[in-house]
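SAMPLE LOG
Freezer: B-3
Tube label: C17
Construct: single chain, 128 aa
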Amino acid sequence: MSNNQGRCSSSPVIAVACTLALFLAQSEITQAKTFTVGEASGWSFNVQSWTRGKKFKAGDALVFNYDPSVHNVAVVDINGYNSCSASPSSAVYSSGNDAIKLSKGRNYFICSIPGHCDGGLKIAVDAA
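STRUCTURE (predicted):
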């Protein structure tokens, strides 16, 4: 009888453990945040200081709002960031309202319109 009782009493423990695991997985997914780059000013010149004081995580989304006839957003590596140039393999967005998910580590974004990145239209974002 004690064996049956032991098996039956473990079922609620397993159910609680599974429920807790699902809850934690879901809460981690729902913790992703959305940030609007540049706030009300949007993706515009001298946006580099916008990241100060913010904490980003992998999976968070950055929304880039801008006039697509004037700017774009290119996801680049450190070399593209430093040289203000997008490579042929860079993802380039041009809708004027682009949501881009952050990867873990440092993420680099520039405007690839000539002169714009050099004029300050670039950001580097660290995501935990």
